[in-house]
Each structure stands twice: as structure tokens, then as C-alpha cells.
Amino acid sequence: STRLASSRSPQGLANRDWDIYSFHVNSTVTSRYATTIITSRVANRIDQSQEIEFHVKIPKMAFISKFKMTIEGQTYDGVVKQKEEAQQQYTQAVSRGQSAGIVSSVGRTLEEFKTSVTVAALSKVTFELTYEELLKRRLGKYELLIHARPMQPVADFKIDVYINERPGINFLEIKGGLSTKELAKAITKTHASSEAWVHFYPSKEQQSQCDSCGEQGLNGDLVIVYDVHRNTSMGELKESKGYFVHHFAPSDLPRIPKNVVFIIDRSGSMHGRKMEQTREALLKILVDLAEDDHFGLITFDYSVSTWKKELLPANQQNLEAAKSFARHIHDRGATDINAAVLEGTAMLNRNPREGSASLLILLTDGDPTTGETNLEKIHKNVKEAIGKKFPLYCLGFGMDVNFEFLEKMALENSGVGRRIYEDSDAALQLQGFYEEVATPLLTDVQMVYVGGANLTQTNFSQYYNGSEIVVSGQITDNNIETFTAEVIATSVRVMYSETIPTDEPIEARPDSHIQRLWAYLTVKQLLDKEVQSSGKAKEKVKKEALDLCLKYGFVTPLTSMVVTKPQGEASQVAHKPKEGEKPSGPMPGFSGPRFSFMSGQAGYPGEQNYHHQRKHTSTHAHTIGIHMRLYFPSLELRGLAQTMENSPRPLFLLHQTLQLVLCIGAGSVLLSSAKPRFINRTARW
Fold first, then answer.
1. 499 to 236, 246, 486: CA distances (angstroms)
2. Residue 60 pLDDT more than 70?
3. For 62-78, what is the mean pLDDT?
4. Helix (H, G, I), strand (E, B) or coil at 359
5. If DSSP codes are grouped into helix, strand and coil, which group holds residue 6?
6. Does the keyword Secreted apply (predicted)?
């Protein structure tokens, strides 16, 4: 959302002390790399100075790369610094009695950026924020999300999106709350071969007429959904100023039968709606299994139960029996993640099938509380047992889960960690994730680039239909003549090789978006690598990522942006929080505000967790030779780990939600507490 507000009383809002007279969003997407600039112009309508706040929500996978304010012809630029250095600057400001800070938060898809500045009587201010992201292909499409909530109708409101994709745009759709009702009439889209334009110019009257809009104007998302043509199985290779990007997403390959084991947490903390939604999703996922897939089901609390000891084919008889088992999964007991994952690994290892792809999917909502509870030992045990033979996907249910633990375990085993949000659509979130990995097309994918250097990730455990592999790097000595690309992978079809010419002219651009794409992707992967590393290796990876962040101006968990202001006003510091990071609120006896993160879903602002602070061109025409070789085989209670051996007894679960509100410019912090919620239930251990 974008919101500008006076720090005066709520009556000031009603009297419209300030006016957003112009609000523009301009987004350019090239080679799936999106650069979005939000420009908001605000006028102070009263004859005295006042604090004006700028509040915007951006996609959580994006990096802020620029921010500036222009006041009375003077521009104040944000400066990206190492996080510790920026924090020191902020702490010194606080010690001088200056109350200024920026609160960032992570939600499901968006995070916040907020700052403020004093604007003189009857003067104007322009805010400009730039962020960048590589759009990720999921289920056969890319999505560019733009969120707007100005808190008032704006006379000059515009969203402009330009997409340029050299292979050609296959389809283009507009979704989201800002495309509903009367607002649909304010959208124009033009789609011509490799280019597309979307314009959203709602009138002040239309801005109060969408599903979630009202007197305060727009409130919602505009989502541009598209995919590109895939004319060759080798994908698209693009070069610019000595950097290249390779988008690889073949769809004309036969699916590989899979072996999948679902490991489901049935501990006491899964009680109620979580368990119901898990059962609902599992039943639908089982129906989607192909007959040549083999599958297994494991449930766990303090003990591990298997539906069957071996993997079974997904025929009608077995599926009906499995669905009956799934309907009778009930919550009870503690959480032994270590034993459950090791059993799932052993099950896959006992059932090797040539010409198949294996994967483990773990769903849990808590930390290990029984059996092996040392997190490092669990990581070590699981990594040794899997031995890089197949990926492990870890789904963390809710905000109380130790997401960092799950994410590291997944990344160490060629998988990903994904949070499932406690909401009415949790079952759909689970199904959506399964659909992403439901159809393996290739395994053991190696991307080989002769004449390439400083490459992003080149080895991938599996490639799934509807997804995409993206590799970027530098071309050694900028010598395009000696550069070749090759894909080596395992499928179920005969070996073949192919050369893809790219001798058509490549669009000349003044900037090097491919170089920034390479930097973005490299930083993202280094941050993942840092999660998995320790000791000197961790520091080395961290420094490498930090150097790139500072060079390219990215605000990441390693860097912060110091927002400079007119003389006499305190600088502000913007941090990018990691996924699941919790608020660091004031300590008892504090004498001033501390920088704070707020995270959580709607209705759960920053739910407190008592155990963990969570850690998120001009070019020339040329021909690039590409060869493809496919090798084929011959054929809990959260925070209270209790074990009860006596008869069932009532358990009381207290959720205390703390909300930290930072009043910028007012020199005070309000710590408010939501009403505690008590749950009384009987636990069976």
C-alpha cells in the first residue's frame, strides 16, 4: 500500500490538511526482471509546517534500490550502508533524544517501508521509491504485483506497466482487487508480439468503487499475469554488456513418475482448524497422484506412524485406503521431527525405482520437542541420510513455527522452505505448493557454460513442469565467440542435442538490466547459502553478498538504507527483515524507542514468540551455440515441551499479542497489548 498521512491528530486527516495530488507507479519488466518506481507528490495545505508520512508496501521478494525525497527543489537521497553501521547511526540519534525510525514488516506477500518528513507551510514534497525483483515462474505463469492504498482519492493516479520479452508474450491477464467492478473500465492493455503495455488510470470517482475501496480511495492489488512463448526446448539466452541470462523451461518433455513421501505433523499444536485443513489438502493431493507414481504417508508426534512400510503405486485401491487413513489423522502429543524425516528418507531409500524422481514433503507447525531436539544434530542427521539423492521440501504451518530451522534443513537438501499461513485458504496453499512439484520433467540438471564466469547456481536436483531454471553470469573477457551453453540432465527420453541461434538483433538498452538481474540473483542465492553455512565459510559468504549489496544499492537483511533529511531532522534507517522475523520491542525500563520489526498475518500483528528472534544496453548481434544432452537411465505446545505420562489433563494456551507503534516525530513509543486469548483443551500424550 502507499499511504501518506499527517502526524497530526485524526481530525487532521478528515480536514485534509495534506493532499496527494499525484501518485504514479511505473514498472518495467525485461527478461522477467522488474524495476518499479513509485512517485508520490503531496502538498501541505495549511499555513503551518507538519509531519508528512510516506508508507508503501512492496513485494517481499523485491529489493529496494533507491529512495529520495524532494522538498523545495532540494533532493535528499537514501544511502545504503552495512546494517551494523546504519544501526549505529540510528542508535546515536536515539541517544541524542531524536525519535526517528522506520518499521518494516513481513506479511504473506508484501512488506512495508515507512518514513516521514516535516513539510513547511503550504509547501510540497515528492517521494520516490525504486525496487527491483526477478519474477519467478510458478504453475506456468509470472505475476507482477502492485499494491496501492493512498488513503484518499487522488486526482492524478496512474499505474503504467511495460513488459518486453524477446521470445514473445504468450498471454496477458489482469487480476487483483483493483481490477474489479468499476475499476475494470479504468484499465487498458495492449499486447503486441514481444511487448505489452498496461495502463490503469482511475478517476477520483472510480477510486472508491472497487471491492475493498471506499471514501479513502483505492485499497488493493493490481496483478499482471503473463507467460512467454517457448520456441525451443533450450529456452532463451540473452547477453548484454558482458553479462548473460539463460531462462530454461522446456515443456515438451514427458513427465517422470515420482516417488513421494508425505510427512505430516499430528502433534497437539496441530489441533483444530490446522488439522482439518491438512486432511482436506491431503485428500485432494492424493486424488491428483498419477497411477505410475508411488507414494507413502507418515504421521508423527512423539512417535512415528507409517500408513504402509513401503511405497505403493497410486492405483485406485491404494488411494482409497490412503484416503481412509488420512481422514483419521488426529492431533496428539509432542513433536519428533528428526525420527519422522529419517523414516521418510529410509522409505525412499528402500524403494529405488529406475527412471523415477523422489521427493520428501514435510509439514509441521512447531519445533522438535521430543526425541532428538538439538537443531544442529537434526540438520546433520537428515543431510547424511538423504545424501543429495532427492530434495526435501519443508512447509511451516503458521507464525509460531521455527521457520529458519526448516528453511535451512530444506536448503541443505536441494529443497525450499515455504510458510503456510493460518487462514481460510491454508488447504489451497498446501495444494498449490504440491502442484508446483507434482510433475518432474528432468532430474540431476547441470547447466554448463564454457566461457562463463561468476555463475549463479548451475546444478538443480529436479526441474518441474510450470517452473523455470534461471542462470546468469559473466562472459569471460566479454568474448561472445567462445561462449557456449549446454544442459545435461536425466529424463525418460532418448538423448538429443540442439543448437539455438540468437543472431536476431537484441534490443539496445542504455542500462544493463541483465547485470542487475545477475547481481539480484547472486545476492538471493548467497543469502540462502549463508543460512546453510557456519564459521569462516559463513563470514566469507556474508562478505561476498554484502559487497554486492553495497555496489548495487540493494536493501537486504545485510544492509540498511539511511534516509537523509533536511538539516535539523534525524536520519531514518530502513532494514529489510527476514521471513518470520519477530519484533524486537523495548526492554523493561527502556528510555526510548528501539528499531522494531512487526510481522504476522492480518489479525496477528507480530505475534510474540518467546524462544526465537526470527531471522529474508547496447549489444551486438551474435550467434551462441547451445547443446543439450539428456542422459537417461536404462530403464506441541509452542514454547512448552511437555511429556505427560499421567491421565489426560486440561491444557491452557495463552496467546499474548504485543503491538509496537512508533510515533515518528512525537518522541514517544506506545506499547499496546491485545486481549489475551485462552484456549482450553485436553491433550492426549
1. 12, 14, 9
2. yes
3. 92
4. strand
5. strand
6. yes
Sorted by sequence, the CB contacts under 8 Å of residue 682 that are 6+ apart come out as: 648, 649, 650, 651
217: left (phi over 0), alpha (psi -120 to 50) or beta: left
Q: Is the dihedral of CA 393, 397, 398, 404 positive or negative?
A: negative
Global pTM?
Answer: 0.82
Burial of residue 440, with CB atoms counted within 10 A of its CB: 0-12 exposed, 13-18 middle, 19 or more buried: buried
DSSP letters spanning 382-395: HHHHHTTSS-EEEE
Element (H, E) at 300: strand 294-300
393 torsion bin: left (phi>0), alpha (psi -120 to 50), beta (else): beta
Kindly list the distances between the CA atom of residue 598 and the CA atoms of 112, 259, 404, 602, 606, in Å, as whole numbers in the listed order: 9, 40, 17, 12, 5
Task: Give residues with Cβ within 8 angstroms of 262, minimum separation 6.
Answer: 282, 285, 295, 296, 297, 298, 361, 363
- Under 8 Å between Cβ of 486 and 627: yes
What are the φ and ψ backbone dihedral angles of 428, each rounded to 5 degrees? -65, -35
What CATH number should be reported for the domain whose range is 258-438?
Answer: 3.40.50.410
Cβ-Cβ contacts under 8 Å for 514 (sequence gap 6 or more): 31, 33, 238, 239, 240, 241, 243, 244, 245, 472, 617
- Residue 620's nearest CA partner among 63, 242, 185 is 242
Q: Are 79 and 561 in contact (CB under 8 A)?
A: yes
Domain ranges of the chain: 18-230+554-575, 236-253+443-552, 258-438
User: How far from the centroid of its chain's Cα atoms is residue 55's Cα?
Assistant: 20
Most confident region among 115-124, 132-141, 245-254 by mean pLDDT: 132-141
153 is written with which cell numbers?
Answer: 482519492
